[in-house]
Amino acid sequence: xxxxxxxxxxxxxxxxxxxxxxxxxxxxxxxxxxxxxxxxxxxxxxxxxxxxxxxxxxxxxxxxxxxxxxxxxxxxxxxxxxxxxxxxxxxxxxxxxxxxxxxxxxxxxxxxxxxxxxxxxxxxxxxxxxxxxxxxxxxxxxxxxxxxxxxxxxxxxxxxxxxxxxxxxxxxxxxxxxxxxxxxxxxxxxxxxxxxxxxxxxxxxxxxxxxxxxxxxxxxxxxxxxxxxxxxxxxxxxxxxxxxxxxxxxxxxxxxxxxxxxxxxxxxxxxxxxxxxxxxxxxxxxxxxxxxxxxxxxxxxxxxxxxxxxxxxxxxxxxxxxxxxxxxxxxxxxxxxxxxxxxxxxxxxxxxxxxxxxxxxxxxxxxxxxxxxxxxxxxxxxxxxxxxxxxxxxxxxxxxxxxxxxxxxxxxxxxxxxxxxxxxxxxxxxxxxxxxxxxxxxxxxxxxxxxxxxxxxxxx
Amino acid sequence: xxxxxxxxxxxxxxxxxxxxxxxxxxxxxxxxxxxxxxxxxxxxxxxxxxxxxxxxxxxxxxxxxxxxxxxxxxxxxxxxxxxxxxxxxxxxxxxxxxxxxxxxxxxxxxxxxxxxxxxxxxxxxxxxxxxxxxxxxxxxxxxxxxxxxxxxxxxxxxxxxxxxxxxxxxxxxxxxxxxxxxxxxxxxxxxxxxxxxxxxxxxxxxxxxxxxxxxxxxxxxxxxxxxxxxxxxxxxxxxxxxxxxxxxxxxxxxxxxxxxxxxxxxxxxxxxxxxxxxxxxxxxxxxxxxxxxxxxxxxxxxxxxxxxxxxxxxxxxxxxxxxxxxxxxxxxxxxxxxxxxxxxxxxxxxxxxxxxxxxxxxxxxxxxxxxxxxxxxxxxxxxxxxxxxxxxxxxxxxxxxxxxxxxxxxxxxxxxxxxxxxxxxxxxxxxxxxxxxxxxxxxxxxxxxxxxxxxxxxxx
Lengths: 460, 460
Description:
- Chains A, B: Keywords: FAD, Flavoprotein, Oxidoreductase.
- Chains A, B: This is Glycolate oxidase subunit GlcD.
- Chains A, B: Its cofactor is FAD.
- Chains A, B: InterPro entries: FAD-bd_oxidored_4_C (IPR004113), FAD-bd_PCMH (IPR016166), FAD-bd_PCMH-like_sf (IPR036318), FAD-bd_PCMH_sub1 (IPR016167), FAD-bd_PCMH_sub2 (IPR016169), FAD-linked_Oxase-like_C (IPR016164), FAD-linked_OxidoTrans_Type4 (IPR051914), Oxid_FAD_bind_N (IPR006094).
- Chains A, B: GO terms for molecular function: FAD binding; oxidoreductase activity.
- The structure is a homodimer.
- Chain A is an alpha+beta fold.
- Chain A folds into four domains: 4-89, Uridine Diphospho-n-acetylenolpyruvylglucosamine Reductase, domain 2, CATH 3.30.43; 96-214, Uridine Diphospho-n-acetylenolpyruvylglucosamine Reductase, domain 3; 216-331, Alpha-Beta Plaits; 332-418, Alpha-Beta Plaits (2-Layer Sandwich), CATH 3.30.70.
- Helices cover 35% and strands 21% of the residues of chain A.
- In chain A, the strands form four sheets. Chain A has a seven-stranded antiparallel β-sheet with strand order 15-12-14-13-17-18-16, with helices on both faces. In chain A, strands 5-6-10-8-9 form a five-stranded antiparallel β-sheet.
- In chain A, strand 5 and strand 6 (105-108) form a beta hairpin.
- In chain A, helix 1 (4-14) packs antiparallel against helix 3.
- The first copy, chain A, is globular and about 70 Å long.
- At the A-B interface, strand 9, helix 7, strand 11, helix 8 and helix 10 of A face strand 9, helix 7, strand 11, helix 8 and helix 10 of B.
């Protein structure tokens, strides 16, 4: 619990109505999408960098942990206040400050919801590609802190590829600008890219300068059903080998298809054991040609059925198949351990076979889908933790899957981050010298360990 | 001078024939493209990470500065051994370790020459876009350390956009791997991107994993002469506004044209006061269409003449105009102060006008050309330092140009880095808190200040 004295200081900084120690607020801000719970001692809603600077200076002086958060949609507990202290909610910093059509950049505050920016720039014929599944509610600050990805990343890259500059409050309360608004810039260390994906441990992001692209003129969506996961994987290889990088190359494995078939009205033939959703975008004549080439390349690879969207409604219907996955999974088992491993794309079939073997051995359903184009698989281990032994089995599965991932040259997280859920597994992926190098950075920049303590590998 | 004892240790690590204290070698490795001279006490040519690790451990124990270098083609003195010690030459680490056509990645050692990798991947229908002007002799290690750019960056981005992972020897001699070979990866801090552009101050790069793209099917080159720099700048805005991002948008100002005209056989009409070289690449039908659109967009903007290359020979002839700039400049005045400021592209005409005013005021020729697409201008201040007062005038010009650049939202370096030449101007661009944050990183990772001391803003 925080002393009253501290609450009075915070009230002085942000105003009385923007700090709360009420149980309801502490409960509301005690969890994220991992559904773990850790209550903060107080919830604070600052409105600008100056206030955040003062809060952090006070926190350093008093030794109070500070946990920045956006929409709390993270999958690894990055924003959970595991040592109590302050939940620093950034949703009041929600302005799109400017969209510069000449220089193709946008400047936003961290509380802007991703989809909101996308709509604003699309209205001007511009494009902000990163598209995490949470984009309708996740905030750009959270996207930057976690380096969010999404289906379109195979062609367009991830969040870090779009962040040109930041305004950041350092752990000790200085307000700094990193990077800028130019496409090139090499003056000093690239703090911008260091901060992207640092999960709120090295600074609080208060402004973001984002690179935009021209909006592609048209897009074309195809759904292809294969009789095996190998066929789908070969199709991915054939398309990339054919020198086409589609906008999306999403896949669903056989377990996912069963899941969708059992729980929705979508008609998916029994013979289908893998699905690819392939989208291409750009010049309308070019994408017609690319779609033709793609179908020619994949056809010999065990295709059960193909559906090429004739218009945007049909495209939407195809994406509905993908979107039905998460809701339909909930019916398999009540509890989900959701990982997002990433392997070099050519190792995808090997990885899926390994996961299937682990699922068979442990007798727990594992549903795999995700971004085949960049080898990023969402592995969903479905258990009922109320049943004895199930949680343990899930943990064994996770460990075996991570080990296999690393053996194939992959990483245990493509886009969700480490947070608290993956922290125990870090020594499997990073060697001690690399962890020491990272810890030295954290310690240098946050000597009192105030900002988001206990996260990533930075266990206290 | 180093004690004999130290030389014996180094010989023990790298072999007698791979270390030298001969005056000739110390002279050869005393300069880079800035033509400043600082002699190292010894030159060492290690062959692998293990040797570099041992050298750095010894250097820490003995307090000897270590200056890594590739081809020494840097423009800001990043590799100059300004405190003596060891010149650590990385050219023996020159293997292309693998080109993975399925996963579109290459793994290389730092001593591989940029063009050599490009040729190797192009032979397989693949593409490594970054194209610094030095690509025929600069090494990939140097490109990564400086975050090299080039004309194609307007469409394809800079070196950092292609570096997926590194093997690095830390300043204290640990060998670590950062990033990996997947397109996505968010486990721990993004050390890869922190190291790119850190100018050899945070680690010695010993392996690089690079992302590749499919080689564009075709390209089309156009040279357009304008009657004013404003016409050329409006053309850039019109093209980007027309939702086309060309591969290159290179410009040359009136002074550059005069220079080329006086010193080569190239025919450039007197009315031409600015040139744009515009190249588009991709699908052959699409680029024809884009070229047509571009010509339609730029035609009303004071076009004096247009030359569309009909084939690769004509394209080569157009690029010859650009390549003739540097040699022809040498005839203007013997000494060149070469800066590479970058402004938001819409501020280009304002920036050029400001530079022209400074040139008029100080009565020294300033030749401007560069990458209009990303606002990156190569500003060449031409003086004769043998004449009294000229060097001082050049320095005044640089300071005024930097001030104007920053006022327009730009940066003093788009691709050349800080090194030693720009270090004195750092306080103009970065605020003290940002510099302190960077210095804290350097100090944490290199506590004995062994690796490339005295560089960037990290003055001792």
